[in-house]
């Protein structure tokens, strides 16, 4: 495998891989930042990064991170009755799959802006239901379902909007950076543990679940206007599709050329998504709660902060330089390798605690974030504008339901009475997780050889008929 394979460059004049520094890292960012007040979809946003709108979407991802921690926080804090711990670990994620379907339908029917506002409001409803009846198990379940549906569904309009408002050469950077706010949300929820205020953990989560959606909705209402490409494709504006994409990309950017079938694209993004979600949920929440019990609250904090750092570095310095196919191969290959390292260490030492264990778990969050970053870039970049929300949501629905069921099964039957039984269960669960990771790696290899490149290329290639 040559170096060129890992650093594929767009040879068009709009390429982001020609040695330019990301605007997020260079001093030229100051000039771009003057466009912060430009609104998505407006002519004034042409070819610029609409920072205020991006901030609103980032706040939405912060909500996503906090909300997806809602069930695990309640479980780890013993708010969920002990006999129903697996409900808190998995139910909101399974519900999130159905939320993704709803969000995708709304994203293509209502538009990116309106669906973003609607789904964010669902989170507020879920939190209010819990706060009005915090000791009622039925209210708790309904709240988990609503918040899970909305939080996971929220990523569909967010990623879709970014793909359609950010210039092609910096699109990957912002897709990674914005989704990284989800990791920040996870870390914030578990920070009280680090400060010795474990009792404040639930209050922190509930406060953020109420405040963050409100901020996102206010910013979204004022800063986010509708996607010009979506408006053009659906006939809701008098701008033609070619002009719409030129307004976004501005420069003469090479168009994406979808050489792989739609079926293969959907299969690939779904399978690597399942592997990434199982990695995130199992490593961040379930594994610590079930096996590494001394670190059940510490692991999510370490993971959230580690992924924030990795996401920022990858998003700012590498996302516009490395091809999507190479990035997927590196991310999923390292995930398999490091999971094998953790499994082997525990199996050989018989230890479920210690600094060496924590160090390996921390290392595992590097590929966990890289796989999420790759997925965040690829999901909205593989489908045509008119059905982008629908296809993204179908993939995400399957991903979250399957990942939720896998972690539900692996946690539901955890009843060890001796250390030997615990080790046996750990080996079984590790084998299942490794199988999922290997499937992700296999599909990333298949995409490397049979897929096509989307980095720094205009997504107008899906929408404009070739002459």
If you had to describe this structure to a student in words, what would you say it looks like?
- By secondary structure, the chain is mainly α.
- It has one domain (43-462): MFS general substrate transporter like domains (Growth Hormone, Chain: A), CATH 1.20.1250.20.
- Helices cover 71% and strands 0% of the residues.
- The protein has helices at residues 3-6, 29-33, 51-68, 70-76, 85-109, 112-132, 137-165, 168-194, 201-223, 228-233, 241-249, 262-290, 298-318, 324-349, 355-378, 388-412, 419-450.
- The protein starts with a helix and ends in a 17-residue tail after the last helix.
- Residues 1-20 and 26-46 have low confidence and may be disordered.
Q: Any chance you could write out the topology, listing elements then pairs?
A:
Elements: H1 3-6, H2 29-33, H3 51-68, H4 70-76, H5 85-109, H6 112-132, H7 137-165, H8 168-194, H9 201-223, H10 228-233, H11 241-249, H12 262-290, H13 298-318, H14 324-349, H15 355-378, H16 388-412, H17 419-450
Brief descriptors of the model:
467 residues; mainly alpha; Growth Hormone, Chain: A; 17 helices; 0% strand; globular
In short:
This protein has 17 helices and no strands. With 467 residues, the protein is mainly α.
Tell me the CATH superfamily. MFS general substrate transporter like domains
Helical proportion? over 70%
> Any low-confidence stretches, pLDDT <50, length ≥5?
1-20, 26-46
Counting DSSP E segments of at least 2 residues, the number of strands comes to 0
Number of helices: 17
What can be said about the biggest beta sheet?
none
First-to-last CA distance: 36 Å
Strand content: under 5%
Structural class: mainly alpha
Order of helices and strands: HHHHHHHHHHHHHHHHH
Output the CATH class name: Mainly Alpha
Cα Rg? 21 Å
Instruction: Output mean pLDDT.
Output: 82
CATH topology, which one? Growth Hormone, Chain: A
- Count of the domains: 1
Judging from the principal axes of the Cα atoms, what is the shape? globular
Gross CATH architecture: Up-down Bundle
